Amino acid sequence: MPATNNGLKVALTGFMGVGKSSVSRHLASLLRSKRLDLDRVIEESEGKSIAAIIDSVGIEKYRNIETDNLRHVVKRDDFQILSLGGGTWTLERNREILRAHGFTSVWLDATFEHCWLNIAFSRKDRPLARNKDGARQLFEERQKIYCLADWHFVIRSGLNSYDIAKQIREEIFS
Ligand code: S3P
């Protein structure tokens, strides 16, 4: 059966380790469309890993770099699915940029323990999640901001990123 695709542009948000990148990969493939990962775009434009950038310039300057890259990326017309960094959506100016460019926002919501397992087993160095207590606090602070997204998908145990991508396609794109 051909994939349905109504041409919407989607920005995936949610906490570190929730699976934004893998959901975006499956979703793009189901929709036969292209995706971008904002973290990857930043790493390519800066020539360093996100962790190296944050460690060298600090989180405030990193947020400015992130917003600059977001401003640039939203003007491109060669992709449909954008996976954000876990903090991108938490800044009002970034939410404004996404809305102004017609993105529908999708919050991938899982428990902290689910995210933490992925963080702990991933090889990716996440400066804002180098210890569990700090990460949990950030997770709790951010819930009220993630829930400003247009759509909310709860990742229940037993669901994998392909299942979530299929749900998103069925609910948002059909
Ligand atoms: C961040 C999440 C990271 C990355 C940076 C900051 C955050 O992306 O953008 O380390 O503030 O939550 P992932 O959510 O892809 O790990």
Q: What is the CATH C level class, in words? A: Alpha Beta
CATH topology: Rossmann fold
Q: Which CATH architecture would you pick?
A: 3-Layer(aba) Sandwich
Mean pLDDT across the residues is 95
Major sheet details: 5 strands, parallel
Structural class: alpha/beta
Number of helices: 8
Task: Please tell me about this protein's structure.
The protein is an alpha/beta fold and 174 residues long. The model has no long low-confidence stretch (mean pLDDT 95). α1 (20-31) packs across α8 (161-172). The chain has helices at residues 20-31, 38-46, 50-57, 59-73, 92-100, 112-121, 132-146, 161-172; strands at 9-13, 35-37, 81-83, 103-109, 151-154. The relative contact order is 0.23. The longest helix is centred in the middle third of the chain and has 15 residues, at 59-73. It is globular, with a radius of gyration of 15 Å. It has a single domain (9-162), classed as Rossmann fold (3-Layer(aba) Sandwich). The structure holds shikimate-3-phosphate. Residues 16, 20, 39, 50, 85-87, 126-128 line the site of shikimate-3-phosphate. Shikimate-3-phosphate binds next to loops.
Give a nutshell description of this structure:
The protein is of the alpha/beta class and 174 residues long. 52% of the residues lie in helices and 13% in strands.
